[in-house]
Design brief:
The structure is a single chain. The chain has 211 residues and is an alpha+beta fold. Strands 4, 5, 6, 7, 8, 9, 10 and 11 form an eight-stranded mixed β-sheet that branches. The protein has a three-stranded antiparallel β-sheet with strand order 2-1-3, with no helix packed on it. The longest helix has 14 residues.
Length: 211
């Protein structure tokens, strides 16, 4: 890679030349290339010498981008919504970020607060392992009651998730989940079981983000 036909084959700095640089195609023009690369002496059109872009379809995502609370790994460091940019404490499970919000709210206000962060809703608990992790983690912040995203206020007795996900897992405590005046799902039992509560009552809340 010096601008001369060193090997007298009629070609200058052809493929395989000593001293080639790895160039990364930069589809979004943010100065960082994605995973597609080529080695050559000069930069191909649309390529840069720096890789590491974890999403080369948007200029707002690259190793130099500021992280914000949007369920995206903006700075490509392998973590989502870390660093205190979200309004509540963030923990990650199964590739999803969860915000644990200790502000005492009713269910509807909690749902609105979660939705204020792009990509977040009140948490949906669709497996025993997720439920156990959420409750255990919530208790590290407060041993009180926590709202999740279940409700039966539309049709009494038909519990739904706020996201529309299939209601396939339940973990009601004995005698819970059937009261006609208590239409929202609340966590807080030490055995990880659920309670139905008046949506107007107060509690902390867990928001879940879907990347």
């Amino acid at each position: 890679c010096n601008g001369y036909d060193d090997d007298c084959d009629g070609l200058v700095d052809e493929a395989g030349s000593v001293g080639e640089t790895t160039w990364y195609y930069d589809a979004d023009g943010d100065g960082y290339g994605g995973t597609t690369s080529v080695s050559s002496c000069t930069a191909p059109s649309g390529s840069v010498a720096t890789g590491g872009d974890c999403d080369d379809s948007g200029a707002g995502t690259n190793p130099s981008a500021p992280d914000i609370c949007d369920v995206i790994d903006n700075d490509c460091d392998g973590s989502i919504d870390e660093g205190g940019f979200c309004p509540c404490s963030v923990q990650t499970y199964g590739g999803h970020p969860y915000q644990f919000c200790r502000t005492s709210s009713n269910w509807n206000d909690a749902a609105v607060a979660c939705a204020a962060s792009p990509g977040y809703t009140l948490a949906t608990l669709t497996s025993a392992s997720e439920n156990t992790w959420v409750v255990t983690t919530a208790f590290t912040y407060s041993s009180g009651r926590w709202w999740a995203g279940g409700y039966d206020s539309v049709i009494e007795g038909r519990w739904e998730w706020i996201t529309g996900e299939t209601w396939s897992y339940t973990n009601w405590a004995a005698g819970e989940g059937s009261s006609q005046s208590q239409d929202c799902l609340q966590l807080g039992n030490t055995d990880y079981t659920w309670a139905d509560a008046s949506c107007r009552s107060s509690g902390g809340y867990v928001c879940e983000g879907v990347p």
